[in-house]
């Protein structure tokens, strides 16, 4: 007889006293309709306000709700990792406590795992057909869409949403990933390493809606983003460039070599008809040298990527052996 699936939902929070109690109650009400055993783990990421007290009060209403955390703020990535380390479910869903990714998002992620037993990871994406952004400032939508497209180009066009936190994982699969990032770059690192470990990843469309109450400043009716936009752009561009440099270095190198061929043909033509050819030839050689060096750097980066993946796998094996007590 097949064992019943258990679902763990992990929701980090930081300074959210205005919404945390109602958020936990609302999430618990939705989870109560799951056809599976479940637990809700809310992670206090070193809040400075009364969020922890509010979460603790809300948790008393149901033994399936647990509040965990620590005193110093460590970042969303660390909070999610801490929550997953406390989880006991077969499937772990990480999302925001205010259900801003959809009231039924946990159900849909779990259903996707049921329909695809070999899946390791399910990603909610507002960038898929059928997905959308609601009540999110246009500037923030554009940054998200453009950033994810750039990252997708570097990674090989396998996902449309690298930056979102709402995802489902097979817990045992997630625990094989050697993750280091503590802040929001955590989502990028997980996506990169999940693909490197050949996880079966499925994306589902969702509507991302910013709730006005969350993170609203006193006297303001509108939500304010917790993300620092300049830092977000910088880190995502660095990730996109470092993830797979060979993908863009190779085309640039080939383009430079083609240009050098054009100048080479031009130099030969000038030599044959008696016109000055040395400067044209030198220009062609410069383009060829740039293209050759770029190609060589691209090959080195490709080799470095292969070595990096081998190191990740070694770390993963050591982690698994450590957990198994070997």
Can you give a write-up of this model?
The protein is α/β, with parallel strands linked by helices and 326 residues long. The protein is built from ten helices and nine strands. It has helices spanning 20-31, 51-59, 76-86, 105-115, 138-155, 171-174, 186-196, 229-243, 246-273, 278-323; strands at residues 6-13, 37-45, 65-70, 91-94, 121-125, 132-134, 167-170, 201-205, 207-209. Helix 1 runs parallel beside helix 2 (51-59). The protein is elongated, with a radius of gyration of 25 Å. Residues 214-225 have low confidence and may be disordered.
Provide a concise account of the structure shown.
This protein has ten helices and nine strands.
Roughly how many Å is the radius of gyration?
25 Å
Q: Quickly count the helices.
A: 10
Uncertain residue ranges: 214-225
Distance between the termini: 30 Å
Percent of residues in β-strands:
5-15%
Features:
alpha/beta, single chain, 10 helices, seven-stranded mixed β-sheet, 326 residues
């Amino acid at each position: 007889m097949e064992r019943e699936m258990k679902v763990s939902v992990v929701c980090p929070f930081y300074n959210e006293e205005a919404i945390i109690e109602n958020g936990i109650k609302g999430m618990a009400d939705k989870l109560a309709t799951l056809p599976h055993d479940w637990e809700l783990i809310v992670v206090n990421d070193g809040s400075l306000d009364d969020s922890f007290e509010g979460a603790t009060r809300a948790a008393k209403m149901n033994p399936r709700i647990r509040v965990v955390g620590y005193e110093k703020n460590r970042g969303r990535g660390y909070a999610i990792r801490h929550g997953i380390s406390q989880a006991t479910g077969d499937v772990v869903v990480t999302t925001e406590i205010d259900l801003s990714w959809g009231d039924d998002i946990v159900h849909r992620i779990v259903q996707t795992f049921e329909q695809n037993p070999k899946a390791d990871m399910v990603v909610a994406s507002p960038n898929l057909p059928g997905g959308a952004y609601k009540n999110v400032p246009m500037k923030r939508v554009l940054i998200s869409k453009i950033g994810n497209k750039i990252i997708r180009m570097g990674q090989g066009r396998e996902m449309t949403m690298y930056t979102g936190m709402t995802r489902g994982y097979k817990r045992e699969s997630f625990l094989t990933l050697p993750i280091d990032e503590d802040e929001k770059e955590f989502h990028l690192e997980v996506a990169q390493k999940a693909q490197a470990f050949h996880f079966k990843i499925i994306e589902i469309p969702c509507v991302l809606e910013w709730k006005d109450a969350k993170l609203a400043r006193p006297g303001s009716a509108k939500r304010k983003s917790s993300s620092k936009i300049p830092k977000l752009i910088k880190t995502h561009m660095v990730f996109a460039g470092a993830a797979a440099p060979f993908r863009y270095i190779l085309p640039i190198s080939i383009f430079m070599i083609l240009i050098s061929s054009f100048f080479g043909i031009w130099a030969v033509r000038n030599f044959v008809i008696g016109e000055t050819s040395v400067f044209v030839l030198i220009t062609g050689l410069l383009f060829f040298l740039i293209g050759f060096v770029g190609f060589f750097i691209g090959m080195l980066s490709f080799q470095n990527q292969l070595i990096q993946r081998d190191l990740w796998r070694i770390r993963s094996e050591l982690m698994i052996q450590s957990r198994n007590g070997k």
